[in-house]
Amino acid sequence: xxxxxxxxxxxxxxxxxxxxxxxxxxxxxxxxxxxxxxxxxxxxxxxxxxxxxxxxxxxxxxxxxxxxxxxxxxxxxxxxxxxxxxxxxxxxxxxxxxxxxxxxxxxxxxxxxxxxxxxxxxxxxxxxxxxxxxxxxxxxxxxxxxxxxxxxxxxxxxxxxxxxxxxxxxxxxxxxxxxxxxxxxxxxxxxxxxxxxxxxxxxxxxxxxxxxxxxxxxxxxxxxxxxxxxxxxxxxxxxxxxxxxxxxxxxxxxxxxxxxxxxxxxxxxxxxxxxxxxxxxxxxxxxxxxxxxxxxxxxxxxxxxxxxxxxxxxxxxxxxxxxxxxxxxxxxxxxxxxxxxxxxxxxxxxxxxxxxxxxxxxxxxxxxxxxxxxxxxxxxxxxxxxxxxxxxxxxxxxxxxxxxxxxxxxxxxxxxxxxxxxxxxxxxxxxxxxxxxxxxxxxxxxxxxxxxxxxxxxxxxxxxxxxxxxxxxxxxxxxxxxxxxxxxxxxxxxxxxxxxxxxxxxxxxxxxxxxxxxxxxxxxxxxxxxxxxxxxxxxxxxxxxxxxxxxxxxxxxxxxxxxxxxxxxxxxxxxxxxxxxxxxxxxxxxxxxxxxxxxxxxxxxxxxx
Length: 609
Description:
Blueprint: H1 11-26, H2 30-62, H3 69-117, H4 120-125, H5 128-170, H6 173-220, H7 222-227, H8 231-283, H9 289-330, E1 352-359, E2 368-375, E3 380-385, H10 391-398, E4 406-411, E5 414-415, H11 421-426, E6 428-431, H12 442-447, H13 455-464, H14 468-473, H15 491-505, E7 509-513, H16 521-535, E8 539-543, E9 555-560, E10 563-568, H17 570-576, H18 579-597, H19 600-608
Parallel strand pairs: 3-8, 3-9, 6-7, 7-8
Antiparallel strand pairs: 1-2, 1-4, 4-5, 9-10
Helix pairs in contact: 1-9, 2-3, 2-5, 2-9, 3-5, 3-9, 5-6, 5-9, 6-8, 6-9, 8-9, 13-15, 15-16, 17-18
């Protein structure tokens, strides 16, 4: 299994590509990077100098007539080098801390903004749990990658290079050859096995994301699970993902143990061979005891971090995998993007016009077929029709959640594709059928219509939506939490919150997308009265299911299978005795049937009482 690189390239190429993408975020504080790397090199120069000083100390102390002052000076130098190695390492950490944290912040913010810039299609198809897990792991992986490369791998490589150079320079070629050979064998073994193990990590990530997605989806639909008594069914679905994750985790752990054992064997053999050769040199009189001590110290300095190099490499590979998934989100193309020369929408009155619009969510299935209509500034145009006729699609196209396939949509004579999405959406307000609220306070949810609004303006918006009394009657008032997706509020209360925040936004164009169809009749009448009051003076596109709510619209459009089959006022359409008249008669018959049944209810109660 390969990395998720877009062009199908080799994993190694994808790793380098990921690192190159990360570099610009680090280079923002280039001087801090330079100082940190300089401190790193200084620390390692101090570290590799310690065994050399130690050799001098041992050789002088091993001499029968050692002058005391000379070892004392070497001992002071030894202590100073120890201190310098620590000080420079700490300085590197202090200087680079801001670089790391700023990189994490910038990448996280960029991904967040990019996700919000993607089309509605992406967000309808995405799995929230998996995406959130990818972002979380990716941000954490950036910190791990920077920490490992700059604070562990790079210092280790610098130290190994310096040690190998000293061994080549001071001793015979065999010591250097052994060192290089061991390094090559160790690195090749580590890289080869780790590359093989990388797919296990990816499998674990996939299983983890799947399990998290199922868990979040199930919890978000808690009531539905309870309605059907499917708690155990949900637990089994969740456990199936956990079971796959468990199997991948076990394979990952077993292969890790095998790799560690192989690495330990290589290091043990290398240390034994090097010390044996050094000991033979002492016996032959070619090396001193100090040389043996220096070689041993070099080996410890080199092989102890080298042992962790395997662990670090594995962690780096895992971090690169996680970061790659994070950057993959940034590579998701924007289906709807501002034109290079897009300008700010210039509002005049708010005239909305559809001109021969063709559109389909899928390429081979068209939803709208040449739809044309105009909503004059300050007028209310209603759209009715059966389910699937394409009514709600009109609202989504007004917001430019999708691009039309053929034709155009304009606002005050400006094609919405030629203006910025931000200015377009600032001019439109919507009260949807299903109002979704943030899991925050009522104040926050109403203020969301215009976050810069004053408290007085927010209170006035609540008063206009006739929800102020309700808010003030709550124990916590404005600070009352509405729960996940607003589940602590009734349907009517949520609709009033939606109306209040739309009032606060004060848009030029108002879209009422079946805003009351999910409410009971009594609540619907109250909300409808509030909506009519708010819509006064606004250009309003009303998408309705119940015809009784739009009888006073300036114009009514009747849609069937993506086409406008009739248009006119309520009286004109009834007089035409076409599709609208049939829908009206059907709904009137349903209402009369319910009215006829209602009086029988108390009689039945009395009979059974």
